[in-house]
Amino acid sequence: MKKVKRGFASDNNSGVHPEVMQAIQSVNKGHVIGYGDDEYTDRAVTLVKKHFGKEAQVFFVFNGTGANVLSCQAATRPFNSIICAETSHLHEDECGAPEKFTGCKVLTVPSRHGKISVPSIEKLVYGIGFEHHSQPRIISITQATELGTVYSLSEIRVIADYAHENNMILHMDGARLSNAVVHLDSTFRLSTADQGVDILSFGLTKNGGMLCEAVIFFNPDLVPNFKYIRKQGMQLGSKMRFISAQFIALLQNDLWKRNAYHANSMARLLAERLAEFPQIKITHKVEANGVFVIVPPAIVSLLREKFFFYYWNENISEIRLMTSFDTAEDDITGFIAELRSLLGQ
Amino acid sequence: MKKVKRGFASDNNSGVHPEVMQAIQSVNKGHVIGYGDDEYTDRAVTLVKKHFGKEAQVFFVFNGTGANVLSCQAATRPFNSIICAETSHLHEDECGAPEKFTGCKVLTVPSRHGKISVPSIEKLVYGIGFEHHSQPRIISITQATELGTVYSLSEIRVIADYAHENNMILHMDGARLSNAVVHLDSTFRLSTADQGVDILSFGLTKNGGMLCEAVIFFNPDLVPNFKYIRKQGMQLGSKMRFISAQFIALLQNDLWKRNAYHANSMARLLAERLAEFPQIKITHKVEANGVFVIVPPAIVSLLREKFFFYYWNENISEIRLMTSFDTAEDDITGFIAELRSLLGQ
Amino acid sequence: MKKVKRGFASDNNSGVHPEVMQAIQSVNKGHVIGYGDDEYTDRAVTLVKKHFGKEAQVFFVFNGTGANVLSCQAATRPFNSIICAETSHLHEDECGAPEKFTGCKVLTVPSRHGKISVPSIEKLVYGIGFEHHSQPRIISITQATELGTVYSLSEIRVIADYAHENNMILHMDGARLSNAVVHLDSTFRLSTADQGVDILSFGLTKNGGMLCEAVIFFNPDLVPNFKYIRKQGMQLGSKMRFISAQFIALLQNDLWKRNAYHANSMARLLAERLAEFPQIKITHKVEANGVFVIVPPAIVSLLREKFFFYYWNENISEIRLMTSFDTAEDDITGFIAELRSLLGQ
Amino acid sequence: MKKVKRGFASDNNSGVHPEVMQAIQSVNKGHVIGYGDDEYTDRAVTLVKKHFGKEAQVFFVFNGTGANVLSCQAATRPFNSIICAETSHLHEDECGAPEKFTGCKVLTVPSRHGKISVPSIEKLVYGIGFEHHSQPRIISITQATELGTVYSLSEIRVIADYAHENNMILHMDGARLSNAVVHLDSTFRLSTADQGVDILSFGLTKNGGMLCEAVIFFNPDLVPNFKYIRKQGMQLGSKMRFISAQFIALLQNDLWKRNAYHANSMARLLAERLAEFPQIKITHKVEANGVFVIVPPAIVSLLREKFFFYYWNENISEIRLMTSFDTAEDDITGFIAELRSLLGQ
């Protein structure tokens, strides 16, 4: 049997927050109509609108890949292109699902600490109206980024304005949006709709949920056919109430905020403790729940015997440490102690 | 708030069996690696092999659409065709997902009480080697059928042999396989692998699960690339243990059998009681957990005020009544009483 | 070396009309811009508008498959369905290209002598707004049909009206439109735009051209993105002038009409001569350039030693005989003589 | 009417070589079977084998986009990736056709003067066996490159070896292969099959043909299903003999070589004359039939009033000048004279 070992491998290695589990259980009574036409889903939708604005239109899906790919499908025809960071999950970790499902070209721009900006994006926006060239249609940013950094509100606004001035759409991959909003000390609405985001992949799975992902539209033009896109995209759940229950639990008493606040705090604490080691270099600002550090190559495998974590860039011995809603101070203390021991301090 | 009303609309209107819910809760501790590389998934896989044979290779997915479509993708190239019943879920209820994802042509044959047979299939098997013609590659059958009937083991064998003799693959949509196996008084393995099924969409969601679907391969040639197909198909779950837990609960103490046995029994009871009404005509043999009846048109909407159910064929006033693991005898008694009252008896 | 043998196999077994060849040669001078931005293409477009109405917008493509598939792509999203005759080329002879490229479901209705009509179409128009169901979007008819018959203008009108009342689009596969227009003693415009056709696959290859196919839009809403669809659909020719020249030759001095008139006349003559044999049964009205007959099975292979032709339905010994712009009376006389000899008359 | 103006815009702005036109005419007699089952196609295939080796298997298609995209489809599943130069036609000029048709991810590496090499390719070859990552499958190079340079035989060999060692396939986009072979003073076979190329997009349209493109396989494993891929890919011509005739004309008496030799010579001459201007900078070696130069921005539009040509990179006032089989010395003399006049020399 595989040994269960705690660590910092990914926020999806955590289980489900007890309040979420409780909510899942609590909706398990009697019969309700399938596929989302039920009171729990209604309540979850209402809560989404409370947080994101009443114009927000939400569709629950199964996973982040589904949310990202169907968001793209909603706004594109196959002759379009999608622009994103070369570090983005959309480009790097979906096994080509965006290309397969939308038929679009995915174009990447170099990221600075996970973020992209207009000067690099606009190099890809040309050939408009030229039939030999895929027509740019979506800019996709990740908030918080894959590198643990967070776009400021004005950074989002600038990209959104650029997108709209060029007849494009701004998509946000918000698999860790809660962590970003907590870092910004903002609200969901202020961080998305109010800055010009058109479509959001909204994920709470990594923040204490079990299977808790949604596509949220702030641009109503994109909505009319989305129900068919979700169904044809194999992302429509039959016993929807059990997904909706998770959104209710996470959105109704600010559990999303408590969880993200905790994870972010633990990342900050971990970073502070790691900063004490002169042999270790933190490579990106710690703004959300990820800490990226270069560690002496010799200790990596020894350290991994005790704690789960992944290489980010093996060539430079950079590792990724993710905290979660259930990271305990003890996890950090233990990790630092082990590190100290391995580094002979 | 939507009124919660019991009924016979669908087996997916039921909740989750308490033992399944208990299992989901019981795996919610500590950290495990995501995407299925965890001990619970190992245990679930072992149980699948116990029931289906040790050669069976299983991949958990999110829903029945995903299982069906990815099964087809595993065995086809876009120039192939897929042959199924005109009543099949694959053709009728997936919003074209098979065509979209595989690029294949889906061809239908008329069904007799939900079943297809070689004489009608072979009319579509021609033009082999002719480049203008989509090359037949998959025969897909549904067990139990969408009309509540069940293929006998020898009926499956005959289709499988025909498929293999013609260089084709037999896929089984087993969204209600448990109900079929119970009706046949057989085992999972005897009803699938041993009769020549190559790929199975195995669903337990309708049988007491929450999100409990899998693709099972009995033909090892189709497996090597399937992990990529699942990921690119947006059907790979991150916190996989919560899906695996459901399979463990349903497969380890024959909960699948108890649930299906109950649902089938309730269908039989319902059918027996309905047979007492001369104005009501049962249209298909009641072998699994569905009862199809033609009722006097005048009473349908009145009946629906009290009980959930769907029209099957509104033109002839045919309705579909599905039972489930949680159907109570009281549900049937109440339904019959209401019917009696409406029919003035 | 393969023996060159005349016959009635297909109108694409003929070569190119000398006036078309002459036109191709005549544009072979100097440099012009590629991809259609040249004077010859301008002239061809002008001629298309002269025949089809000035609102017609035309895009030249490479072949009939391309014209049909890109027409469908222009008017659909992948969650749509396309309704056509079970005998249609779109369904039967494109190796699944429509499904592959559009992602749509192709649904068939039984044809009567190659034609479909509203009562059979409307059986497939249901589930509107229901997310599990592919949404019907295109009705495609073939004019002249694959069985040598021709829709009357009012038959087209009725289908067009039905399509538009149901938010659908009427596509016409006009691979043999010239033959139909000649039979109807009508004009291109009256036979298409004026009856409500939205998109036309217009083919002149079978009518004396070499590579002479186009998509013509009468519904301007479908046009804006079509240039990208054609390019991404691999159907944009670089040295376009040589395609345009063919349209010029066929459209400017009514060569299309002379060719089609001749082919139709030859078909009628052939049918008249075949009608003299009591052992031979003509199975469809001879309205365009195809003659379908059931002949005694014993003579088919003997007959084929002398003349090219294809079985249509081998089970009933039905063969298809196509005439062309270059069919000579001698071809018919010789065929009849051979038949007479084989039938011992 | 658009003014016909000679120039250096593209080798596809030229017409058709008279010998090719003559060949097209010469096959225009009698009936032959459609879709390539004719004597002329047989002869063209034989000639291809004569030049490329008897193992070569060839399929004629309509255009370079078709040849490139179908080549990719033959060797991939949608979870694969295709690696090419960022300057490649496959990436830059197909309006996303490769992604749309194959579903694969297209990844680019920076090119040096249009060429790519293993050190940059291998940065993209990772994540093998990791289900979240598109699996690299094709390396595509262009010969001659889009920048008028030519890979040496050993440069090709090195990439081919790398591809095969990594279970990948080498595709060559040979839209201007003739120009490269002439530059290398080699043969078709030595420049392709013998260096390890698996699939070739072989184009003669730019070298005096009209519609003269093919996919040639040197790796027999990729062939078996290709006839379906071509048909479903909308690239199967009905009156194939007129395409085959072009291949015959160009391949039988070394017309391909005469044409390419002339075009290359004209490019060299043009480059020599341009080198006389100190204000003009040649940006890439002139090895095939393209000359890339940076010219003073002020003269570009004035120059374009007299001669067709395109900007390559407007930001740095770089223009592309293509020569062709029909470029006359007078064209060059006139161009240089105009330039001299504009530059006030």
What is the domain total for the residues of chain A? 2
* Helicity range of chain A: 25-40%
Largest beta sheet: strand ordering of chain A: 1-7-6-5-4-2-3
Instruction: Give Rg of chain A in angstroms.
Output: 20 Å
**CATH top level assignment of the largest domain in chain A:** Alpha Beta
Note the total helix count of chain A: 14
Total strand segments of chain A: 11
The CATH architecture assignment of the largest domain in chain A turns out to be 3-Layer(aba) Sandwich
N to C succession of SSEs of chain A: HHEHEHHEHEHEHHEEHHHEEHEEH
CATH structural fold name of the largest domain in chain A: Aspartate Aminotransferase, domain 2
> Which class of secondary structure composition applies to the elements of chain A?
alpha/beta
Textual characterization of the structure:
4 copies of one chain form a homotetramer. The first copy, chain A, is of the alpha/beta class and 345 residues long. Chain A folds into 2 domains: 18-252, Type I PLP-dependent aspartate aminotransferase-like (Major domain) (Aspartate Aminotransferase, domain 2, 3-Layer(aba) Sandwich); 255-342, Aspartate Aminotransferase, domain 1. Chain A is built from 14 helices and 11 strands. Chain A has helices at residues 18-26, 39-52, 64-75, 89-92, 97-102, 118-121, 153-165, 177-184, 188-191, 226-232, 241-252, 255-274, 297-304, 329-342; strands at 57-61, 80-85, 105-109, 135-142, 169-174, 199-203, 213-217, 281-282, 290-294, 310-313, 318-322. In chain A, the strands form 2 sheets. In chain A, strands 1-7-6-5-4-2-3 form a 7-stranded mixed sheet, with helices on both faces. A 4-stranded antiparallel sheet of chain A has the order 8-9-11-10, with helices on one face. The first copy, chain A, is globular and about 60 Å long. The mean pLDDT of chain A is 96.
